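Students often ask why inverse folding is considered easier than folding. One informal answer: many sequences map to the same fold, so there is more than one right answer. In these notes we will look at a single instance of the problem. The structure comes first.
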């Protein structure tokens, strides 16, 4: 319920206006002095102010009202203020209207005119607030896209936007992050995004792919080894935790870490202490850990393959990266990134979007590299990508599967503030096709 503040030293005026506004569905706050009015505006959510021009006995200059007006505007520059004036204060009221007052009414006021003015101003205030919120959100989205692009993260889908927003928020803290998602979906890019936007951005960022190392070498890789600790160890070796001291360690494919390595990892996360293989000397390190996995660690815990206490140490915040097939809006922007300045036929666009991409972004990148070599010029067709399992539905069927529904259209129209060009680009549609879709669902544009 919108709350209106009435400021007047006359009790009868306060009671009359309060009754009028409450009857018409407004909440009311009252103040008899400028000080009380400023306190209310400072600590309560006020939609509109109705204020007198004088508050002291035998004062008619309107100077008190002017002072209050400017004080309220300083507290809230967008607050609508209606002035209630006597004819002797008309000149001052007009001066304040030029300075930004919403309206002025002479005493005795006209109830209908006052209510109409209030309704219009409250509605306008809500619209401005909504517009400012959308503008702020759009600026935040643009900023997050810029930050993501710096790390090579290309996307257009709302699912990825939400993930990037959360990653940027998580980046500000030192907590451990677990990034989950299928192979090739871009988990390392999310880790790079977090690191680049953290206060550790200028500190070491060390990456370890546990899935690419033999089990017997993983511990040496993480914690280091003394000469002679194992066959082939001819000299002392610094581990990744030691190298990352003061910075960030990215542990990819965590599900492949053997139980002995998990125990040591848990210890270093809890205490910051570890020993190199073949040594009894304890080393100290302070490292932020970002880990990633394509495995179902909860299932691994049930099967005794992964320590539950380590899981909860690593998974303070989980960021889940969906498969590329679940974020179709990202496919064409990625193709444009991997194949800059190349033109795809409409059929190629549709079929690439309809393909399941079991290898995710990595498969898409490889397909684009292959096309760039085999067909360096000309318009690219679907067959040029040589995807053996590419579905062969008719273009019409594919178009139907990709066309946005009413809810998606309404969300996009809000997100892009009704800018048709941006909404059309978001869905990969022509403006004419978008107009037809909007008309079909009765969405006002």
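Output (designed amino acids):
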């Amino acid at each position: 319920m919108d709350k209106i503040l009435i400021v007047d030293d006359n009790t009868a005026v306060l009671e009359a206006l309060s009754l009028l506004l409450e009857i018409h569905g407004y909440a009311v706050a009252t103040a008899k002095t400028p000080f009380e009015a400023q306190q209310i505006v400072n600590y309560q959510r006020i939609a509109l102010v109705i204020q007198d021009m004088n508050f002291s006995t035998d004062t008619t200059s309107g100077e008190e009202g002017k002072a209050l007006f400017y004080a309220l505007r300083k507290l809230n520059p967008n607050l609508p203020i209606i002035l209630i004036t006597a004819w002797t204060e008309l000149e001052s009221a007009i001066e304040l209207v030029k300075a930004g007052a919403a309206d002025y009414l002479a005493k005795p006021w006209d109830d209908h005119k006052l209510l109409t003015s209030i309704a219009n101003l409250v509605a306008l205030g809500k619209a401005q607030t909504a517009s400012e919120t959308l503008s702020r959100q759009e600026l935040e989205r643009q900023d997050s896209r810029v930050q993501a692009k710096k790390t090579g993260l290309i996307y257009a889908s709302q699912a990825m936007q939400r993930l990037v927003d959360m990653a940027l928020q998580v980046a500000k803290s030192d907590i451990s992050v677990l990034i989950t998602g299928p192979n090739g979906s871009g988990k390392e890019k999310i880790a790079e995004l977090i690191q680049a936007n953290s206060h550790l951005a200028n500190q070491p960022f060390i990456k370890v792919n546990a899935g690419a190392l033999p089990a017997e070498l993983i511990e040496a890789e993480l914690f280091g080894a003394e000469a002679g600790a194992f066959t082939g160890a001819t000299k002392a070796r610094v581990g990744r935790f030691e190298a990352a001291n003061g910075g960030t360690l990215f542990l990819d494919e965590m599900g492949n870490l053997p139980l002995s390595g998990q125990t040591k990892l848990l210890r270093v996360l809890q205490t910051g202490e570890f020993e190199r293989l073949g040594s009894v000397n304890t080393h100290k390190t302070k490292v932020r850990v970002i880990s990633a996995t394509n495995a179902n660690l909860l299932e691994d815990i049930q099967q005794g393959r992964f320590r539950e206490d380590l899981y909860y140490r690593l998974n303070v915040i989980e960021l889940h990266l969906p498969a590329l097939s679940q974020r179709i809006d990202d496919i064409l922007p990625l193709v444009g990134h991997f194949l800059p300045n190349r033109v795809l036929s409409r059929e190629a666009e549709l079929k690439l979007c309809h393909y399941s991409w079991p290898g995710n972004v990595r498969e898409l990148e490889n397909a684009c590299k292959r096309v760039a070599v085999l067909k360096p010029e000309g318009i690219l067709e679907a067959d040029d990508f040589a995807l053996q399992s590419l579905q062969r539905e008719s273009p019409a069927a594919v178009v139907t599967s990709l066309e946005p529904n009413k809810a998606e259209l309404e969300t996009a129209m809000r997100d892009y503030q009704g800018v048709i060009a941006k909404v059309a680009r978001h869905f990969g549609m022509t403006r004419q096709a978008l107009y037809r879709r909007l008309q079909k669902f009765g969405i006002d544009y």
